[in-house]
Amino acid sequence: LHSDAAAAAMGQDYYAVLELRRSATDAEIKKAYRRLALKNHPLKCKEPWAPERFRQLAEAYDVLSDREWGECSVGDHRIILVGEAPQDHPSVPPPLALPHVLRTSCPSQPHTHLSRWAPTLLIPSSPPQVMNEDDQTSTIRDKILTIDVQPGWKQGTRVTFEKEGDQGPNVIPADITFIVQEKLHPRFKRADDNLIFVATVPLGKALTGCAVPVKTLDGRLLNIPINDIVDPKYCKVVPGEGMPLPHDPRRKGDLLIYFDICFPKKLTPDQKMLLRSALLS
């Protein structure tokens, strides 16, 4: 039985998302999700709204087909997409400012390097076709693939589960592959294993020195002293404060600090005289 309260708990009509009546059965929910997910998959549908529509479909299916968690936890049980993790899920840490990169561990081991202390993401995949005992017919069944986050993975990293796709008579099940995508960060930009940070400083501090505060991805506050004269091409390198190296997370790349120098909008005659005396003498 599918409760209207379960759908309303997430603040959205998930039956409407899947274009279903509220009396829809399990089979109807699975069929609608499969049809709409194939139609709106971002790799097939190039419309700008496709990724968000695909996310809504997955979330709706995840909620309406929920049996393990039940209605009491429907507010916490969300589909987790690659590179994202819910802030309120007790078993999944919130994402780093730069998105976590992924590795996987599950009963069928994918081709990835395992790290025993990495966080975990649960990724419900589209319900696959599974062969029945008669070896002639197949049934759609749910399966959860577990992907653990490993520090340092890069954009484009592929996680493959062998033979976890649809099954059928005389058909070898296809592989399922997840591809890592990085989310943009409000403060940092990634450059391979390094992180780029742009500090805004006034002209006076650029000429006379200053300390640049930088809040790191793990919440530490660094005060980086700048004793050189900062010109528009100047870069301050802070060793070991970049991204973890994929094959050795104990080591990190560098933090590269570039500068946006703010010039004054106007100067008084006295200020101009002082600057001429200091800079042009």
Automatic annotation (TrEMBL):
Cross-referenced InterPro entries: DnaJ_C, DnaJ_domain, DnaJ_subfamily_B, HSP40/DnaJ_pept-bd, J_dom_sf
Pfam name, any one: DnaJ_C
PROSITE patterns: DNAJ_2
The keyword Transcription is annotated on this UniProt entry: no
Domain J: 13-69
Domain of life: Eukaryota
GO biological process entries: protein folding
Signal peptide boundaries: none
GO cellular component: cytosol
A GO molecular-function annotation: unfolded protein binding
UniProt entry keywords in alphabetical sequence: Chaperone
PANTHER family: DNAJ HOMOLOG SUBFAMILY B MEMBER 13 (PTHR24078:SF519), DNAJ HOMOLOG SUBFAMILY C MEMBER (PTHR24078)
Name this polypeptide is given: DJB13 protein
Name of the encoding gene: Dnajb13
